[in-house]
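PROTOCOL LOG
Step 1. Enter all chains and additional molecules of the complex.
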Amino acid sequence: MSFAEPLALQSGASIRGYSLAYETYGTLNADKSNAVLICHALNASHHVAGVYAGQQNSEGWWDTMIGPGKPVDTDRFFVIGVNNLGSCFGSTGPMHPNPDTGKVYGADFPVVTVEDWVNAQARLLDGLGIQTLAAVMGGSLGGMQALSWTLQYPERVRHAVVVASAPNLTAENIAFNEVARRAIVTDPDFHGGHFYEQGVIPKRGLRIARMIGHITYLSDDVMNEKFGRELRPRILRAGSSGDGPPRDAKAPSGGSAVHDVTSVGAYLYTTQDIEFQIESYLRYQGDKFSEYFDANTYLLITRALDYFDPARHHDGILAKALAGATAKFLLVSFTTDWRFAPRRSREIVKALLDNRRDVSYAEIDAPHGHDAFLLEDARYLGVVRSYFDRIAAEAPSPSGSGPGWGPA
Amino acid sequence: MGAGMSDRLTMQSIARLVPPGSRVLDLGCGDGAMLDYLQRERGCSGYGIEIADANVLACVKRGVNVIQLNLDEGLSMFDDASFDVVLQIDTLQHLRNAETMLLETARVGRTGIVAFPNFAHWPNRLSIARGRMPVTKRLPYQWYDTPNIRVGTYKDFEVLATKNRLSILDSYGLQEGREVRFLPNTRAGTAVFKFERG
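Step 2. Run joint prediction.
Step 3. Record the structure below.
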């Protein structure tokens, strides 16, 4: 959907002539009361569920959660996925031309915040003719947007489902973002953010940014369980990061005699080649990411994470910030998530309690760290399913709506 | 939770202690049946606290606000006197920090209501007299697998409440859903206390 009118941004800048990519699932009922907006996190998009016909591995990023018969049941709800401004999956972003100059934005793309995204999403809903959301839902940075919706447009949100999120980032969390940003910015191929015209991509920076991200999305336990100290299988080992031809499986580097050490698996005694499986995993994830993700988008989105802090204009008191929220809330966190730890979700719960708002909170004992919010876990999916069943049951009874709509 | 407590009469009796329209915090709310009842029948609002995943799910299904917390970690999330009533129905006996949680109940609630199995109920005394720990409908566990790690009596609670300067507003026993106000320490399987900070 294209928007000609300028959108005023938190920074004081504005952006005009932009477009937002979005997808919808299910059917909007007659009184438009069954709309659910899904907000995405760092590297996701408007493609939240389902597959593209004829495309392998094209499942939406929250396909475990959203779809026909799933916890967020698209047989009952009209689900909207939207790609945020500044992202790189179809909505206007740094790789697109600035209508004011005719040149690609690059590093000049305006800094956007969670609040700006919510304002842009609200305009999209206006365009779709939807006044009120049955629910707004998101995980991580998406959860921040869901929370912000209840503050910026309280009258337009009946329920907010905030998963693995936080009321702001801690210093440690900002620190991780900063390392990732510095990796990108200091890549010689970054060219101050104007790399598009140079015909290069700062892939090295993107790879490292993604590697550090991945470390923080997992838990120590799950990483040990998945990779432990396991060595990369010799057959796959190569001279240089897996790119060159396989080396003789028996030859350690240096030394004159070759011992038979296959029983425990021999070290390569190399400082630069992949030795451990975890290295292989991180490099693979980094490589994959650098192929599709935009460097300027990474900077913008991590900055939006850093800036989000609704309590900032309320003496740092979250309860004051949430006083205006009227939605009902479901919050979910995961015990092993240290990037968006349960205690951060509890802060939101407490602020809602202080304001006497309706809130339920599930703290799921899952081993997968922050990643858990994207994975299948019966307890997690069960709570969300039950919550959405309630939303469906309490909705104003629509006339002439699609099948399956009714009391749960 | 306990078999006897699922009794509707018992729930109704305890619910009568909760003033209509109260803001209620139910510690160890189980499947949310009590809060659901208080919301529907007495116009109350509030939250349940639960640790068990299945109970959290049951509460969400009922539309009862539930917060998944371990009560052994205390009630730091809740401000002083932030609720009209704090309930501990068949919860106290499961808590390692039972005395602390009793004080926390009195801190967070303007009134507290506690119900727990009365170990001095006569069949329990009889069993002890025979030399065996009681296994009854109310206390259905063997001594080695019971989750009731803080077994006490109606009288014991009076002593604990006095020690902690709680004033008892009402107290009685419950047996088969009937209120027992004469010799409750002997005649009732469940002890019920309504109290406030003294």
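Step 4. Note key features.
The mean pLDDT of chain B is 93.
The first helix of chain B runs from residue 8 to 15.
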